[in-house]
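Predict structure. Chain length: 308.
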Amino acid sequence: MLSFQMSEEEDFEPRAEPPPPPTAPARGELRSDGVLVPAEGDASTLRNKGAFGETTPGGQLRLSWIETCYLTEAGRLVVERSGKVVGFRDLVRLAHRGRGDFEVLYVVYRDLRQRGYVVEEGASPIDFRVHPRGGRPGKTTTGTWVSAVSERAPFVLREILDRVRKVQGVRKQLLLGVVDEESDLTYYAAREVELHGSVVARGATAKADLLADRALVPDEAEARALAESGFFGKFLGRRLQLSLLETAYLLDGGDLPARYADPEPVPGNQFGFAVTPAGPDVVIGAPLEEISRANVASISCGSYGTSG
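Prediction complete.
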């Protein structure tokens, strides 16, 4: 089972104020394959204060796009091309060409850096490997791995589970950095857990009407007995609304004799005249339905739709 929990302060400490930029920012050159800091002094400063980039055999420093954008925004780097300064906006556009979700990645990277962490870029779907505060590559190991996720991106549980198992297999913690449309960021700790315990006998039954994607227990006494027996559902006035998962669980245990509701009730259409299983669905006949409308209703996992 997958467990998602908002990250607490012990996972990531509160954001630290970024240090003031140096009076003389480092100089970088925009080249066809990225950004290079040619001066050894500038390269050494960026490497020693933040562990940015990769040092070349000649003592220069090669920066990734995300490092370049962050250092430029922080005032620690000025990037030039053919003697002209390349601004932050143009750098982001160039970075976006290489990866369409760069803005989401940058929001997460920027937040981690501003909290004072040294961050190594990883290979998707593990976007960042985070060193403990005060650590650096070659001296400390990364204990937390982070995936940057857009709030609007498809959320495939199987892919997340595979990612969790990979991370837990090497004794790391996985955080999902979820970025919304306003670029607000929330971290969720994801882990696979095995549930333990025993199920207490419920001892309460109720009749429910299956609606589009939920069920409704109309009788107040039955609703309260069912809710009190296992904390099921949510009350809407005196009626109890059940989710599909709760409905399926109660149906499986025989505690919820369910009634399928006609999606388009018409007096005398004999909805429910015949019922037959059809694979995972249930087909319910309505033989006197008008010809212009569907004459059967297909019920699947408690939801219905009409089909011809």
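Summary: The chain has three domains: 2-9+23-192, 208-260, 275-307.
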